Amino acid sequence: MNTPIVLMIIDMQKGMSWPQAGVRNNLNAERDITELLAHWRGKNQPVVHVLHHSTEPDSLFWPEQEGAEPQEMFLPLENEKVIVKSVPDAFTYSNLEVWLNTQGIQRLVIVGVSTNNSVESTVRSAGNLGFKTYVVANGCFAFEKKDFDGEMRSAQEVHAMSLANLDGEYATVITQADALLLCKQ
Amino acid sequence: MNTPIVLMIIDMQKGMSWPQAGVRNNLNAERDITELLAHWRGKNQPVVHVLHHSTEPDSLFWPEQEGAEPQEMFLPLENEKVIVKSVPDAFTYSNLEVWLNTQGIQRLVIVGVSTNNSVESTVRSAGNLGFKTYVVANGCFAFEKKDFDGEMRSAQEVHAMSLANLDGEYATVITQADALLLCKQ
């Protein structure tokens, strides 16, 4: 019998779907994450919902407003683990590592936003801590951003550079089909 | 009286100077780090040397060969802290966080290699943990690398994207002059 494999959904809150969040790539990520979530629930595999609560009142993630609420299609069920964080990395100052270990979970499939910020920080830590970590490329997205030399990088460029940092070093970057198959095993 | 400010030098080992390491940017980083190290020592401020020891025998950082040794100009002095790590993030499975706290160190100036790997992981964790963290742009370097869409990115592009991920979110990216000034305060 295989050990459990967790689906971790990062920062898919209402504010992330608002125009103020920025110009993004992977417009079908919500559909793909919804499919993965239904699949995971159907297989009775564990799900972790990571929610960001900012410490800055003007943030889209300030907890006392709608932007911080989970998007409707990703509302946690009662038996699902929720991690509330105030920094990008879901492992920092949370009980996530301990919880995964007590559940016997060694394999993580990670989706959410943004690829180069909360997703990348959490995936780096997961890999550093020794978890077998997968990132679903189509289930993450990023926002356009200037690089430090002042050159505007498209959301897809930011996303692709971030995945290249992660793949083979901290995690394995996979497709939707790979992810569905992992949860069937 | 100000609290101490630490200079953290990441992975400046002999293997990083070999051609096998790849095509890099910031060819003057060694000179600039040497200047910072002399300045820090002159001001009696703390220095942390982070050394990578790979778990893969064919790595440039496999501990039982010259590539893993510190470069001559960055050899730690007896009173300086050394962290040996086997994953990119110097905080993972090390006593670095505890050591900084027991020394009363809240401010970190980080240099080394590579910008988008060990430097970025360590800086992300430092920022997430709440340390006031600075990255000296000219004191770090990266290597050319394909992004996940298969496009070759120059070392400077990789470096500039990584610094953009860090600046304002996990750290403040600064110049050599800024760093020298920080240690004078």
UniProtKB/TrEMBL annotation, chains A, B:
Residue limits of the Isochorismatase-like domain?
7-177
Q: Which GO terms describe its molecular function?
A: hydrolase activity
Asked if the Swiss-Prot or TrEMBL record annotates the protein with the keyword Hydrolase, the reply is yes
Pfam families recorded: Isochorismatase
Hydrolase as a keyword?
yes
The alphabetized UniProt keywords are: Hydrolase
Q: Which PANTHER family match?
A: ISOCHORISMATASE HYDROLASE, PEROXYUREIDOACRYLATE/UREIDOACRYLATE AMIDOHYDROLASE-RELATED
Under what name is this protein listed? Answer: Cysteine hydrolase
**What is the source species?**
Marinomonas colpomeniae
